[in-house]
Amino acid sequence: MSYRLRAAATLALGSLAGHVHAAGFALIEQNASGLGNAYAGQAASAQDASTIFFNPAGMTLLPDRQVVMAGHLIAPNAEFTGVVAPNIGGGDGGNAGGLAFVPNGYFAFRLTPDVHLGVGMFAPFGLKTEYDSTWVGRVHAIESEVKTININPSIAWKASESLSLGAGLSIQYIEATLTSAASTALTPPIGAVKGDDYGWGFNLGALWSLSEGTRLGLSYRSEIEHTLEGDFAINGVVFTDPVFADVTLPDSASLSFFHRVNDRWDFLADLTWMGWSDFVQLNIVDSTGAPVVEPTTENWDDSYRVSLGLNYRVNDKLVLRGGVAFDETPVSDQFRTARIPDQDRTWVALGAQYRLSDKSVIDFGYAHLFVKDARIEELRSTVLLLTGDYDASVDILSAQLTHSF
Fold first, then answer.
1. Rounded CA separation 42/54 (Å)
2. Is the CB of residue 142 less than 8 Å from the CB of residue 133?
3. CA distance 79 to 231
């Protein structure tokens, strides 16, 4: 049986996602108000309660009470062209992506003049790729789906007029399903590994007001360790129960800058690092510790994301946004697989905010991600070599309602 449970498949979100959207399989789509800036400056802008994800210290800049509800339509496209040797027949697999809806929500309130509390619900990682069951790489992968839900209670303290500090606790649930062909037959039996787990981590943040309208933000999210427990089945018949897989989701750090140039213009910038190098190997084992399937060598690298953005205030009601970003892949050509055919992405984003009333605003954003062509040469069971190229892109459309009271 040829099968693997990837770390890429170990993260996801409350809905789904596909072939996604920041380095590796991280999900940066945590609000719609930042999408139009390609998420530049999010640890410093603190424009609404979604700062709970990007930098909890930013809650000290919010009104007494605020709720944010956002949703994202994500449409990835990933099409393979290539062959497997020796030839076992089958097509190219179709579009391995698919349309997904990703929600998130936040609530923040002022407890005392200098202390704010809040809570967020979101998915910091996500993956869903799915090929036709008869494609040439069916022994390598058919479906890879991971779902995570993260609840993040947070606190912020205004330590001085220029410095705010924040912290939060992440309580995370993860669920993963991975399938592949159990033989080289054109209509093969399908093997499936399913598992889930709870884990926890933390996040920290600091926000400095360098001058009126100029802020510097620094934030950190810890890694979260999971031991997924589930079963291994072929065509729905369980062969091994339980099975286990240890996965460490990466930590990350962001340095952000926000500057109000004048009454019309804001400039935003961001540098984010993700610690993917902990993702070295994934091994699925039974209760005795014996491998259920062959271990998967990952050898991912740490990666960086750089983004720049602008806001233009047309009037008291309307703000226009724009942004660009470069998202570095953690996956080298040598270790790329059909489950996560990841490559560098370049973002181009536009957005707008419209004030409905003194208490409510709506945000819209759109981004197109240009994904560099990805080369794959993946060997399975020391016999089947999948060789080819991926042509990929991603479109994201987001909307958000923010209400203060």
1. 6
2. yes
3. 30
Q: Which two tokens stand for residue 348?
A: 């181009």
Q: Give the DSSP letter string of 84-104.
A: EES----B--SBS---EEEEE
For residue 86, whether the previous peptide bond is cis, meaning omega lies within 30 degrees of 0, is yes
Q: How far apart are CA 103 and CA 69, in angstroms?
A: 8
Closest among 207, 212, 258 to 60, alpha carbons compared: 207
CB 387 within 8 A of CB 87: no
- Spell out the domain ranges in the chain: 8-404
Query: Would you say domain 8-404 falls under CATH 3.40.50.300?
Result: no
Q: Which of 271, 364, 273 is nearest to 325 (CA)?
A: 271
For tokens 């996500």, the residue is 126
Residue 404 has pLDDT above 70, yes or no: yes
CA dist list (Å): 146 to 9, 47, 176, 369: 5, 30, 4, 21
5 within 8 A of 335, measured Cβ to Cβ: no
Helix (H, G, I), strand (E, B) or coil at 277: helix
If DSSP codes are grouped into helix, strand and coil, which group holds residue 37? helix
The two three-digit tokens of residue 245, written as one number? 């897989």
Over residues 218-254, the pLDDT tens digits come to 999 999 999 999 999 999 899 889 999 988 899 999 9
Q: Are the beta carbons of 55 and 43 closer than 8 angstroms?
A: yes
Q: Is 35 helix (H, G, I), strand (E, B) or coil?
A: helix
- 3-state SS, residue 10: helix
339-373 pLDDT tens trace: 889 999 999 999 999 999 999 999 999 999 999 99
173-183, pLDDT tens digit by residue? Answer: 999 998 999 89
Sign, Cα dihedral of 246, 234, 189, 236:
negative
- pTM of the predicted protein model: 0.91
Using the Cα atoms of residue 227, residue 252, residue 129 and residue 13 in order, give the sign of their dihedral: positive
